[in-house]
Amino acid sequence: MSPAPGIPLSQILQGQTVDNLWGAAFLGLLAACMLYGITTLQTYNYFSNYPNDPKKFKLLAMVVWILDTTSLALVVTAMYGYLITDMNNPLERIKVNRTLDLDPAIMGILAFLTHWYLGNRVWIVCNRSLIIAAILTLLSVTSLSLALTSAIVSFKFELWTEKADMRPLALAGTALVVALDGLIASILCVYLLKQRTTGKRLRRLVRRIIIFAVNTGLATSILSIVNVVTFVALPNTMIFLGTNFIFTKGSKQLLPLPPA
Question: N or C: which end of the chain has fewer CB within 10 A?
Fold first, then answer.
């Protein structure tokens, strides 16, 4: 069976080795499992140590964990199919496992939740500014729309090499996520630093929010850039798939900040 009409197998497999294909994807899976363990521990500690937190934060933490678990289950299912079920069938391994096509949607939802949580903090410290709220809402909804569109479009492609056509969409989504992360972190830091806080408890809370905003924005931005760079620069390998596994888990290191 030919992998695709008019496309010779030698062309599809050009520049590919076991290491930069399934070796890279497998290492990404291992890293994703480690990050999933951290998320699970964070979730357990949060519910154990802060039982009186608002219900909306508890719901956010639970939704994040459920999405994280779902994402890992999809990734493990796909990798089992590639490395075990189709171990002796190389033609099947060059095809996209459809469980992975759902990943952009999950990433988009997680990014939206992250931006909603931090955007809510921005809205509060900015005296509930409607202009800032409108800008952040527009950017967040646009980012989510691009992620969902990416998931839908990815179902059109059967082979991994065909996904190169999604580069413009991937670049647009990444640029928007990086810009939104930077905007949220910058606004939070500027407004909080301008406030004259009194009392050790309040200063500690302000410092924690600033650190959380900067770290979250910086981490997701770096992971987003690395993920899209490997996708664009190395389309004939699975290195981008390994970084994508890490990105989907790294972006989920979000839990509500407990009271100081």
Answer: N
